[in-house]
Structure formats: structure tokens, C-alpha cells
Amino acid sequence: MSRIAQLTAFVSLLLATSAAAESDPVVVELFTSQGCSSCPPADRIMHDLASREDVIGLALHVDYWDYIGWKDEYADPGHTTRQRAYAREGGRTMIYTPQMVVNGQQDVVGAQSRELDKLIDAHLKAAPEASVTAKHAGDQVTIDVTPVDVPKGALFDIRVVQYSPMRHASIRRGELAGHELDYANVVESWQIAGQWTGDAPQEFSVSLVSDLPAVVFVQRVGHGPIIAAARVE
């Protein structure tokens, strides 16, 4: 490789590292339910997370509380499956609500905002492993993923998530009967745009299923760590 080519590659790597360090938000997934009396404090934290630029907060409503008298209208069995996968990945035998999972790696029980803030801060300061950008034209999203310091031999899902910024629930039965609650960043759909080996920059494209806001994140296959994330612009 010529000296000029080496310099160009080095500058590109520096720019990618700088961009990822400055703009890569932390993904916080909240597993919650309208049938869970312990969940409203964590749901309120999600309102705060939804207002932050350095965090992508997502509320995943699960269905395993539906049996106690109130069917969560935003629940999706796929969210329960995802939570169980995280539990297996972390060596846990139980799932519960409310639970927050940070960048697919650590979990926070309930509404422990101080512990959550510590984890978010640690991830914001961590050296980037990859960077991702996503832009849409009409319903088509173009995703560009660039390696920075990707673990060798890993395989990653390029996940596209769409969500409702705010949804309201008038709960009539169950543990929260009589409550009028607003939920922030309620997940409505998931897609996998493709898989990435992390060896080189790669472009993906996918069609959105609705006009709702969307985010993209790069997650190790098997519900492992999320190494990069971005909002669709």
C-alpha cells in the first residue's frame, strides 16, 4: 500500500472513530407491562430517556402479565421472546418487569435511575467498535455500517425498530385498574435488514413498514452486545 493510501486509510479510521464517539447513542430497552403495578416509575424514566439525544430509549411491552385481568394492548409475544433471550445470554433463569437492558449487555432492576445513569455514562465513554448511519427516502432506508474495532469472528444483526413516540392507555382492570397512563417510545415493529461480519464497511437497505420514527442498531447475533446505534434521519 502506498504512503498516500495508508494516510487516507488512517484518516478515515480517525474520522469514523471520532464520529462514533461523538454521536453513537446508548440503547436502553425497557421491558414493561400495563398489568404490572411496579412498572409506572420505570415508565416515567422512559419519558426522560426519550428526550435525550445520547440515548435511544425503547419500551417493549410484554404479554406475560395479561392473565391477571388486563390485556396490554401494546404487548407483543416477540418482546417476551427477546427478554427471554437476554436472560439466557446473561445466564439468568427468570424474567421480570420492569427491567432495563443497556446496549444488550447489563440489566437494571426496576426504576433504579442512579444505576441506570452509571451504566449509560460508562457506555458513552467506551471506545467505539463500529459506527452506523441511516437515512431514508420515502419508505426506503439506507444503512451504512463501518468497522472501528470490531471483535474478530463475530456476526451481527442489523436491526431496524419503529416506535410510537407516545401512546396513552386507560387501564380498567388488573393491578393498575383506574389509571390513565402515557407510554413513551412504544416499540411497534422489528426488522432485520441483514447480517454483517464486521470485516469491512457495508451498505444495507430495507423498506419501513409504517411512517413511524425508526432507529437502527448493530447487535451481535444471539442477542449479544449492541455495538452501534443511530436514528434514521
Structural features, described:
This protein is an alpha+beta fold and 233 residues long. Helices cover 25% and strands 38% of the residues. The protein contains 4 helices and 11 strands, in the order αβαβαββαβββββββ. The protein has helices at 3-23, 40-50, 77-89, 113-125; strands spanning 26-32, 55-61, 99-102, 106-109, 130-137, 140-147, 156-170, 180-196, 202-207, 214-220, 226-231. Strand 10 and strand 11 (226-231) form a beta hairpin. The longest helix is centred in the N-terminal third of the chain and has 21 residues, at 3-23. The radius of gyration is 19 Å and the shape is globular. The protein starts with a helix and ends with a strand.
